[in-house]
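Lecture 7 notes: from sequence to structure.
We start with the chain below.
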Amino acid sequence: MCGDASLDDLTVFDLLTSLVEKSLVQTETSDTWTRYRILESTRQYARELLQEQGEYEAAAGAHAAAFLAKAEELDDAYETMSDEQWAREVQVEIDNWRTALEWGLIASSDVTVGQRLAGALR
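Predicted C-alpha cells for the same chain:
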C-alpha cells in the first residue's frame, strides 16, 4: 500500500481504513506497531490493474526503494540490535524483500537497486 505526493498522510490513512472496513486489507498489531496486509488475490488483481494502466514500474520501483532503505537501515543496525530483535525485524519483511529483489534483479531495467538490496541482505 502506498501513496504519492498528491495525497497527504490523513487521506492515505482514510483510504486504508476504508479498505480495512471492506475486508480488502487485514491488520496485524503488536504493542509497538500495526501492519497492514492485502490478500494474495487482491495483490494479484492490483498488480494487473497497475500493469494495464502503465503504472506498475513506478509502483514496483517505489516499493523496492522503500525496502532497500529498510534493509540498509537494518544492515547498519546489525551490531547495535539484539539478535532476537534484528531477526524479528528481518522476518516480518521477507516477502517484501523477495518481491523487491525479483523486480530489482529480473524485471527492472536498472539492476542497481536489486544489487544494493542483495548486498544489504547478505
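Points to note: Helices lie at 9-21, 40-52, 56-77, 83-92, 94-107, 112-120. The longest helix spans residues 56-77.
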